[in-house]
Amino acid sequence: MRSIIAAALLAAVTATACARTQQEAPVAAAVPIAAAAGAAPAAPTPRRQPVSPMKMDTVRRDAVATLLATLKGRENEPAGVVFKNVKLHKDMPVREFLSMMDEQYGRGLGFTCVNCHMDNGDYASDERKNKVIARQMERMQRDIDSKYIAKVKELDDPRPKTTCVMCHRGTPHMPNTMEVPTAPVPQRKRG
What we know:
There is one protein chain. The protein is mainly alpha-helical and about 190 residues long. The chain has one domain (about 1-25, about 50-170): Photosynthetic Reaction Center, subunit C, domain 2 (Orthogonal Bundle). About 45% of the residues lie in helices and about 0% in strands. It contains six helices and no strands. The chain starts with a helix and ends in a 23-residue tail after the last helix. The relative contact order is 0.11.
């Protein structure tokens, strides 16, 4: 059964990776810094444009839908039973687990699945550094929630929870500056 799932995952990831590659702008050829004597200076080559968040969102949603299709009937089983090497969220149902991966990790960090997982369909592999970092960050979030946020009684939200987007704001590396607002910052309605 696992080999069938692995084969389906490999096909899904390969199709997603191919679709992603076709959507991205081509990479320009490398140009030597110093041209030969007497040669005309080379025209600057266009840089590859980053993939838009909308395209990444589409790629992730397609990958999740494809994966869920291969797991039909197992959507409510625990993620730790269905997938290999799940260290956190083992008891979370598969559908909720994949939704969290898409919305919290993917969208919160501006990533697609292959930023943390191998693009050969081996989701269990810990080879990618980002996957290891994500687990460490999840543990940090849990500490912040339990040791600090839960003790702030004045918060409006009865179940406060930190998320990736609170710091990353849709980018892989946390910004350390904020844009100056051009209009008054909207205030949250109370009560």
